[in-house]
Design goal:
binds adenosine monophosphate, single chain, 42% helix, 14 strands, disordered N terminus, disordered C terminus, Rossmann fold
Amino acid sequence: MNSNMMFGRSHRRVHPAYMIFSDLGLSEDLLNAVTDAGYIEPTPIQAEAIPYVLMGRDILGCAQTGTGKTASFTLPMIDILAQGRSKARMPRSLILEPTRELAAQVAENFDIYGKNHRLTKALLIGGESLDEQAKVINKGVDVLIATPGRLIDMFERGLLLLNDVKVFVIDESDRMLDMGFIPDVERIASMLPPLRTTLLFSATMPKEIKKLAEKFLMNPKEVTVAPPSTTADTITQGLLVLGPPNDRRPGAEQKMKRNALRELIKREAPRNALIFCNRKRDVDIVHRSLNRHGLEAARLHGDMSQPMRMETLTKFKTGDMRYLVCSDVAARGIDIPEMSHVFNFDVPTHAEDYVHRIGRTGRAGREGHAITIAVSADAKYIDAIERITHTPIPRIKLEGEKGGELDTTKEKPKRQRNRRQTKSNRAPTEAKVLTENDESLGAVPAVEQSSDERGRSRQRKEAHKDELLEVNEVPVRGLGDHVPAFMLREVELS
Ligand code: AMP
């Protein structure tokens, strides 16, 4: 690529902060598609990354969703792939995404930006027909967007060859790490030709991701935008701490939280809202409860079939449904520019999840509201959130309610003590995410397991145990890992 292409027609170096799209070296067809998408100027990550991707440099991008990072790799990829043709079963580029929703969203981006090109793409995600996906790949595709589990499955069945991949994108790497996908990612990278461009994106840079970058990137251009723990200024936050319930029966606290949620919805009158719960079981309960009280809500979590998840998202995106109760699987990547509210029905136990959850509102400079419901035992989680965001969340109260206090004297909630007893100290993170994403629990290898796979299978077992602890607080003795679902189901509902 010559400098003319790289820095636009003006032949001068432009500081990324002042770049306009035509400075980036993108083709005319692509610039037209970008204009049609309504973009006026590149976001910082686009201004910084696109010229380097076009040059064929590897990228280590520290950026989260909402920064325009998807276009920072899809736009240059379209121009790179515009030349050349794909062969049967040999995709020319590969994008790895941790969840099906993110993969589908990246595919949508290719449709928008690639509308003036004739590139072919395939989406390889779990939960949808493997035969159909194999047929598309067999015809030859330019862009393959995949989740790791399904990709490996397809590769092992001999339905896919990866030796023609020229651009490899590992998106949301820290999420891949949380989900225990890193061994899969490493395996996939080893199946690719060494001569390629690799782009790695991550919202945070823990040491495991840095190691991955050292192993698979060659002299990467490092691009960092907005520190991962910042929350947008456009989001008005609030923390409602509830007092102890009057009723001492089990489930009384949850009932109190559901009442509070309805009060908040009444008070805030959201245009639309995401309501986050920590556990799938609570997603179901809150969803039913809202509907029973006449607040039409949909729900989204990892146990639902893929077509159902897609249908729900579409309904929510098009405004057919005003409320979406969801687990963290929906926290990343859902992109609805005009989301007015986010409610945390539960305080997230991982502080970064708070940033991701509330980042679903206040997008693209619009005003957003994020309200978290807490009980006294949530003190340490709130503390962790306020430490990473460097801002106390303003306390709010419901009208006529005294409210409660966070109990800062308690060291750890009981559930956390239980979970700490497991061998692996990373298991809690995985446990949480593994239960949210069927990709990770699904494909247990049928044939000989490598030591990596054995390790992962052990991790899955640990994770499953942790899930039982999370649902049950204490494990059900004598039933091993497979406690019948009816024994775990909560019956009380208001
Ligand atoms: P992402 O970080 O890739 O999830 O993108 C977040 C949102 O920003 C999406 O709705 C994009 O359509 C939008 N977007 C991406 N680039 C731009 C841009 N240059 N100008 C305006 N919006 C953009």
